[in-house]
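Hello,

Our lab assistant flagged a job as stuck in the queue for most of the afternoon. It eventually completed. Since we weren't sure the result was trustworthy after the delay, we are filing this so someone can double-check. Below is the sequence as submitted and the structure that was eventually returned. Let us know if re-running is recommended.
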Amino acid sequence: MAQFDGKIAIVTGASRGIGRAIATELGRRGATVAAVARADNAKAVADDIVTGGGVAEAHSLDVTDAAAVEALVANTLRRHGRLDVLVSNAGIARDQLLLRMKRADWDDVLATNLTASFTLCQAVLKPMIRQRAGRIVAVSSVVGQTGNAGQANYAASKAGLIGFCKSLAREVASRNVTVNVVAPGLIETDMTRAIAEGARETWAAQIPLGRMGSPADVAAAVCFLASDEASYITGQILAVNGGMYM
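-- returned structure --
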């Protein structure tokens, strides 16, 4: 199992579901975790990590606020002296057929799911390049690879994240900074539980492994890509989807 003793990690969207599982697992493996979410929503996961013997701090942050993102990174560097891992996980969905989609729902999804990753990555690159080491892992989606009716905005943001990370990986590989993507499929989260039962059954029928995934499945993949064991892997998409898209 990959360990993260002495490593400093920022995880966005850490309050629930996949993000919470990632933050918890990094903390369990020894990382100091900066758990990021809106309002006070990250406090519970940070408290859980500390209760389990780990080290964590909660940060209230809207990832679409560029100034706040830059302040978060600067504060993390002041407190810990380095930054080893960024997991860009925060995301939202505003589903609607394109003919009925409001421009605000397009803009909000792109701002949170894609532009925020640009802002976060730009903020962490200088310290990672300076220390000549870093791991960036972005959480995309199988929908970014396949598309899905009623999710043009979400699919565009998640597909854009893949292209963004592949390009960034080429830019920073010579500095020993790796950039990879995890693309989950149908995972048991609040977001997927909100899908109508009939639609869930249709999606689940497309999974060769015959089950929905868990947040822990995604967390394990993220931890691998963020670890020293993945030092020769960059610019890749690790699909965690039970085989629904190959």
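-- support follow-up --
The delay was a queue issue, not a problem with the job. The result is valid. The chain is about 45% helix and 15% strand. The longest helix spans residues 103-131.
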